[in-house]
Amino acid sequence: MKREDTTPLRAAIVGCGRIGANTAERLRVTLPPVWFPYSHLDALREVTGVELVAVCDQNEAAGRMAADTYGASRCYVDGLRMIDEVRPDILLIATRTEGRARLIEHAAEKGVGGVHFEKPLAHSVMECRHALAAAEAAGVQLSYGAVRRCMDVPRRVKEGIDAEELGSLRQIVIECGRVELLWSHPHHFDLITFFAGLREVEAVQSRMSYEMAAFSGKVLDADPVVEGLAIQFGGGVSATILATGAGVVRVICEMGEYVIGGNTSWLVIHERGLGMEWRQPTPVSVPFTMSGRQRALMELAAAVRGEAATCYTAADILRSNQLGLASAWSAVNEGRVVGIAEVPDDFVVTGRKGDLFA
Ligand SMILES: NC(=O)c1ccc[n+]([C@@H]2O[C@H](COP(=O)([O-])OP(=O)(O)OC[C@H]3O[C@@H](n4cnc5c(N)ncnc54)[C@H](O)[C@@H]3O)[C@@H](O)[C@H]2O)c1
Fold first, then answer.
1. How far is the CA of 112 from the centre of ligand 1 (A)?
2. Nearest CA to ligand 1 atom 39
3. Of 6, 44, 212, 298, which is most buried with the most CB atoms under 10 A?
4. Which ligand 1 atom is at minimum distance from the Cα of 145?
5. pLDDT computed for residue 3 by the predictor
6. What's the distance, CA 186 to chain centroid?
7. What is the pTM of this model?
């Protein structure tokens, strides 16, 4: 229902580290301009009608610094307490994965209107289901840190897929180098879900590198490096993740392909002619309007005001997390083909890398 009240929405954040509040200087140089504003709080500053009222970090100094930089009047070290006392309209969650699902459940219990949380949602399907069920039951608007679907170029491609501009979708190929499952691939699973939609998943198969001793019972105590991954959807659509390449995403349709490159900053369409010959690739100009994070937060605010839904449903977020956990389940089962329904709900990938967790 549309909110009649015109007072600013009140926002609060848990987790004032690199992605919450401190965009690394290195990223300002290495990421293309379409990624900025990048951190939660830099992006929130650009969203009209929302005011940051409280910050929280278990490291008090990090919280204080974020409160001073972004002008929040209240600073906490305990996120649950902040939610209880502040009752924000919008909660941003930029902690590491541990405890994220619990924060979402608590926000739902306390009537928070919308939550933007980092990726992945949780370490197991069970945790994902609980958090999403609590949010859905309470009518919490959802927004997810895998923000490529909010960026201009993927949105242009999605419009093309939906309009069958190049015929029907056949395959999504992501060339991303050897990167970790929980740290990096949630972005790719979300992009695959965005482009492929919620069509049936017939099979998932993956190979990953991790110390053999890291897997025991139903726990993979690692953030495994993905060496190769294939997903077969119903209707003859598939997705492949390759451990090579320069971050290019190819969305292949019957009559041509979309090539997204430059870390989601440019688009080329490579089309086939009527004789199925490949024509010259054509660069497509996609005007930059705002970063994915800014759009994710702007759309979340609009959803909390009852104006429009966000582009993330609970089913999308569950699906993209399930794809990741099914891939890991395949990898720990000697790379055999698995279905997403056979992944035990309590199979856990901790995301450990040395002493740190994703
Ligand atoms: N969407 C993206 O593009 C993107 C990029 C980088 C990282 N991430 C994700 O964001 C998350 C955070 O990454 P980061 O690099 O900012 O980590 P970080 O360690 O720099 O920051 C996390 C902060 O959260 C605080 N924190 C952790 N648990 C807390 C709790 N329970 N209560 C209060 N504060 C708590 C920590 O003290 C720290 O300051 C990770 O899960 C990562 O996967 C997303």
1. 21
2. 17
3. 44
4. 1
5. 73
6. 6
7. 0.97
